[in-house]
Predict the structure.
Amino acid sequence: MKNTEPSAARVPVGRRVFLGVAALGALGVAFGAGIQNFLGNAFGSGLGGLLPGGDRFRIYSITGTSPKIKDSDYRLRVSGLVERPKIFTLDDLKAMPSTSFVKTFQCVTGWRVPDVAWEGVLLSDILDAVGVKPEGRALTFESYDRADTESLTIDQARLPDVMVAYSMLGAPVTTEHGGPVRLYVAPMFGYKSLKWLSAIRVVSQEQPGYWEQNGYPVNGWLDGATGPTDPDPSLQ
Amino acid sequence: MSVSLARPSPQATVRILRFDRVQRAAHWANALLFGVLMFTAIPLYFGSFFGVVFPRHVIEQIHLWCGLTLPLPLIISLLGPWGRAMRHDVRRINYWTKSEIRWLRTLGRSSLDADKFNPGQKLNAIFVTVAILVMLVTGSMLQWFRFFTVDLRQGATFVHDVFALVIFVVVAGHIYMALTHRDSLRSIFKGWVSESWAKTHARGWFNEVTASDEPSRKN
């Protein structure tokens, strides 16, 4: 190609813009978490929710649909290695001592929503209500979507920030968030917080749930997530 | 001179080739992939809007595979013996004259013998190219998140989302400009622009084409 001007007069703007924008992207990846946390603290999660990548939920479901369950039809069946198997209605759960706290929802794929208000019944209170037999070591959770399953050990289930939640973000748990009743396991990644909770079975040995069968760690501890070099053998 | 303009007949429009077949194919393959990616991005981002109608994992797979395929039209059209016109235009888009930089700085108020593409069009092309790279890298990080710390996953989500927003704005602007500039629009369908259009809108390029041996043939 013959240039009408000498090549010295030509500036590689394309290359510069390309490298500049690519560098911005790289900086965003490296410091995006910090930037978001800063913006979230500076402006509150209200504005953060408006920003792209801000504090907002991405709604995942395995089946692609959300099971619609009327409050009056809701049942939580607790069975297995327990002294007193019981089927809880939503009113039964609400009649139990309630616990509430404000905690972050952290997804394993990287997004997070800080300052989510949760209210419900501690899983340990439910276990006390049915009485776990000595040979009961773990829990299996089932969902109304007939696809998702989850698991916790009894010790994990008795942690003080693991609950069966009927209220979230200051209102009854919506269908898309897993309402009317979902699990919330604060110290672990979001996939452990099974939605549309339908049944809890006490079993003698932990059985990996849906996401664990698809490669996620059985123990989804938030602070254990540093990738393949993680010393925790349950990761990978 | 290898520039062969259409045979001058009284009412015939003299045509100059602006995009050869490879460039048009690359543009539309790229546009199709961008379109599908943007279309599937909406339910993935807003979840409940469409999640009831389409199974989410199907949308995810479409988005994933279109994303992985995204750089191919550009790469294939650039490499290989068929990529000559593409490579010419990459050079045009990369190297700017001082007057082009001034034109962009003054937002089009300074005089310019426009090249085949004006500085705004060049900027669009550069952005789309770098956006492909950034979206491919951050998207891959989200797909294979296991290999990254949670902070990096969050950063990748952040960048993927911010760039997606900018892409929607830029693509909307690109389509608006295309629809309001019919001669340019025709050239990405049929390849050619009229000589009179080139004289008016791409004077620098027109002078170059008529004076050099750049392969610009009648389509």
Q: What stands out?
A: Residues 13-48 of chain A form the longest helix (36 residues). Chain A touches chain B through 52 residues (CB under 8 Å).
